[in-house]
Amino acid sequence: MNKLLVLPVVLVLCQSCSRENEKDFLGAANVEMKVYQVSPAVQGTLLEVKCEEGSSIKQGALLAILDTLPFSLQIREINANLSQISHQLSAKEAESAIARNDASSAKRERDRMKGLADKGAAPLQQADNLESQALSAELRAKAAALNLPAFQAQVEMLLARKAQLELNLSRCYVKSPCNGIVLVRYRHHGEMALPSAPIYEIGEYDTAQIDFFMPEPLLAGLSVGGKVRLRLDTPDGKGDFLPAQVTWISNTAEFSPKNIQTRESRNGLYFKVRVKCANPSGRLKRGLPVEVWR
């Protein structure tokens, strides 16, 4: 008689435990990843496309190389122009120095002759001639000095152009913006790469994101920064739990979201909640169904 009562008692206890555990259940959703559309910053022919779909990559890893020859040739041309202008600038600086020296000598000679003319020891005509020569020398010195800024401006312009070309040259080496997995490869060797056309689509795997909906009564016990758990299905049915954190809660309620299918919940108000979970091992995959628990 006692043995017959064991099964009902066990069932009651299991049902009681199940109902107790269900209080910690918050919602279910699929894992999402931050996705990057990796495009080159410059236009060029693809010389190398290094990664295949499904490859795991680290942040900063080299993904593709564009043809660098057009930029290299332009830099060589600018270097030649800089060398030419530098020689011209040196010549103009020498001319300016000579002109200043001539003007200084002409002024000294003028002052000396003027002193002699004032004493009657030299003719006034000679003093007037030296005055004109001194004025001419001073004007030549000023003209030579005015030429220098124009050459210096040309040098600055070429240096700025060279810096831009060197930047574009470095951009021919396309690198990964994150730790992730290559989801899609859009381009192949020999094709033209454009800034508006991605070469790869990369999913960031070191942090997974889950967006789910919570009914309004459960929201009171949840806040941004709060800790939750993600449950993953396992073959034994027990499931594994991973720690996660609430990063965002919508300020606006949604009425009966389409992905809420239970009859009891169709007429309730729901809030969208986002949690993030560290995923260094890459166990959480994009699209993997998970449950969110307290």
Describe this structure in words.
The chain is an alpha+beta fold. The protein has two domains: 26-66 and 172-294, OB fold (Dihydrolipoamide Acetyltransferase, E2P), CATH 2.40.50.100; 69-170. It is built from four helices and 15 strands. Strands 1-10-14-12-11-15 form a six-stranded antiparallel β-barrel. Helix 2 packs antiparallel against helix 3.
Short summary of the structure?
With 294 residues, the chain is of the alpha+beta class.
Largest sheet: 6 strands, antiparallel, barrel
Question: Which CATH architecture of the largest domain would you pick?
Answer: Beta Barrel
The number of helices is 4
Structural class: alpha+beta
| Gross geometry | elongated
The CATH class of the largest domain, by name, is: Mainly Beta
Q: Mean pLDDT, as a whole number?
A: 82
SSE string? HEEEEEHHEEEEEHEEEEE
* Largest sheet strand order: 1-10-14-12-11-15
Amino-to-carboxy terminus distance: 42 Å
The poorly predicted ranges are 1-20
* CATH fold-type name of the largest domain: OB fold (Dihydrolipoamide Acetyltransferase, E2P)
Overall radius of gyration: 40 Å
Relative strand content? 25-35%
Helicity range of the residues?
A: 40-55%
Q: Can you say what the CATH homologous superfamily of the largest domain is?
A: RNA polymerase II/Efflux pump adaptor protein, barrel-sandwich hybrid domain
Q: How many domains make up the coordinates?
A: 2
Q: How many beta-strand runs?
A: 15
